Amino acid sequence: MKVGIVGASGYSGEVLVKLLLGHPRVTLAAVTSRSQAGKALATVIPSVRGADQGLKFTDSDPAALAAGDIDLFFLALPHGAAATYAKALVAAGKRVIDLSADFRIADLATYQKYYGEHHAPDLLPSARFVLPELTAPGWKSEVKLVAAPGCYPTSILVPLVPLLKAGVVTREHIVVNSYSGVSGAGKKAEEMYLYVERAESIKAYGLVKHRHLAEVEEQLALLTGAKTIIQFNPHLAPMRRGIATTITVPAAKGATIEQLYAAWNGTYGGRPFVQVLPTGETPDTAHVVGTNRVDMSAVLDPRTGNFVITAAEDNLVKGASGQAVQIMNLWCGFEETAGLV
C-alpha cells in the first residue's frame, strides 16, 4: 500500500519517515515539505541514508496530492494547517490520519475556545478520534479521517479511563502533573527552547488552560460516560524526548490497589503497547524512548487515601507518529505491531 507524509521535515514527520521506511506492508511514496521541496530525503534526514529509496521532498500541494495514487496520508502539520489538506484528501477518497489537533475535538465551540478558527468544520462530524487501546473497534469501517491523540492526553487517558469506568477512583480532585521533552514543542526557533535555556532547567507552562486539556476532558466524558474535570499542570523538562505523567486521584471508598490493577489488566491484558508495572516500580522515560509503549504503575497512599499513578511514553512515538502507524495497522488489517517496537 502506498502512503505519504505531509509535513515530513518536522520531528513527528521524521519519526514517521523512519517507521514507514521500515514497515513491512507499506511503501513510502511521498514526503512533502514546503521549506525542503526539491531536496533529497537523506540530505534533510541523514539518519535514513541507504534506506531512503531515493525519495525527494515535494511541495505540499493539496490538489496534487489528492490527484495521485497514494492510498493513505499522514498529516504531520501544525494545528490549523492540517484541516486544508484533510479537506482535499478526504474529498478525493483518500484515507487520512491527522497528527495535529484539528480533528481531535468533536465540539466546534470547544475547539474554537482553545485553538481559534477551524478551517474545515464540516469534516468534524465525520472525523474519529482513535486511541487504539480504548476506542471501540467498530471505528475501522466508519471513517476516512482519523485524529491521532496528543502526547499528553495519551499518557493521561490510558491510565485513567479504565479506573473511572470501573469506579475505582473518584471524578473529583484529580491532579495531573506532566513533564515533556522539548521536542514536544516542534521545531520552533524561540528563546525558551534554546539549549542554554532548557539545560539544567525545568518549568511549568500553559497553566491553567493548556490546549490538550480540552482533548483530555472531552475524551474522559465520551469514554467513561460522565463529565470529568482535571487539574492539568504541564512542565517542560530538560530532555529531548519523553513524557512522564503523575496522576494523583482519590481512591473510591473501599477501593484497593488490587482492584486498580484488576481494572488495568482487564482492559490492557494482551495489548502489546501498554506495560503495567508492579506497584512501587515507577516507569522511566529512558525505558520507553524509541518505543510505542506506555509504561505505568500505581501505589495507594494510606495517609491521604489517594492513588498515585505514574506513566511514561515517548512523545514522538506513542505520543504521535508510532501511535499513528498503530492506527494505520489496525485500520488496514495489518498486524497491530507491524513496523513498531
Describe, in plain words, how this protein is organized in 3D.
By secondary structure, the protein is of the alpha/beta class. The chain folds into two domains: 2-126, NAD(P)-binding Rossmann-like Domain (Rossmann fold, 3-Layer(aba) Sandwich); 151-315, Dihydrodipicolinate Reductase, domain 2. The chain has ten helices and 14 strands. The chain has helices at residues 11-21, 41-44, 62-67, 82-91, 108-115, 151-166, 195-198, 212-224, 257-268, 317-332; strands spanning 2-6, 27-32, 57-58, 72-75, 95-98, 128-129, 145-147, 174-180, 203-204, 230-236, 243-250, 274-276, 294-301, 306-313. Strands 3-2-1-4-5-7-6 form a seven-stranded parallel sheet, sandwiched between helices. Strands 9-10-8-11-14-13-12 form a seven-stranded mixed sheet. A hairpin with a 4-residue loop joins strand 13 (294-301) and strand 14. Helix 1 crosses helix 10 (317-332), helix 6 packs parallel to helix 8 and helix 6 packs across helix 9. The longest helix is centred in the middle third of the chain and has 16 residues, at 151-166. The chain starts with a strand and ends in a 9-residue tail after the last helix. 46% of the residues are buried.
